[in-house]
Amino acid sequence: MKDWLLDILREPDTQGPLKYSDEEHALLSSGNSFKVEDDIPSFVSEKPAKAGFDYTSHYAIDAEQFDYFRERTDRLTATHLRLLRDTVMKQVPAGSRLLLDVGCGCAFVAERFCPKGVNVVSMDIARANTQKALSKHPFPTHAAVVADAYHLPFADQTFDCIVASEIIEHTVDPQGFVSSLLSKLKPGGTLIVSTPYKEQIAYSLCIHCNCKTPHNAHLHSFDKDKMRRIVQPLPAEIAAMRLVGSKLLLRSHLVMPLSHLGIPFWRLCDRLLNRLVPKAEHFVITIRKR
Asked: Which residues, at least 6 apart from 106, have a Cβ–Cβ distance to it below 8 Å?
């Protein structure tokens, strides 16, 4: 296990120190043991939840069924994703030396910043995603952790910047999610959140439980006012909110010709259209901790 990762890890509930045991392949605290497999410590219980939405099991199965690292063959989807991720990464403050990528998915944050000497922790609730992340981006500056965003295994006030891209819409308690992440940021640190903008969540009837089930496991829809209400009681302020992916552009006949002209030209057209008609697929929220 990388020394720099061990330095910032803590027991999630007590914030107590952890010690790595070579014999047990585990991190030990005063009362708990957390297994380490392929240099990836896991702080997620393997026991199913007693009640409510068992999101731990859900996303473990999700990561096995869907490959978040697959190459996008649809040019439109690939270009839009690239624009969204590029917008997210442009919000990372210059000089950031330690980043946390929450719900890392395909680990695009590590891919961008680890080669520059920035330490990145790719965190996911599913082990499969963290294993693929480290395998695809095996940098000395890249580490991975399996953990729950509501029980983070890091020392308080540790990270310069935290990225949570396309995660908050899946969470049971969005404000608790943001509050938990803020606790791990240094004062003045930056939290970057991206999520669908004013999404009309669709439901279907689950064939297994006969309950209404939201498509893509999206539990919440967000707009600018809702994000302001989430952040307002917390020790933070919203620095910027940027619309990404104009629906007018994505659904027009111009979209395919523009996709061949490159990201800079696409970004310019996207910004102009979103200013004229603020209807976008996503938005990126930059939050600064006080």
From this structure: 68, 69, 133
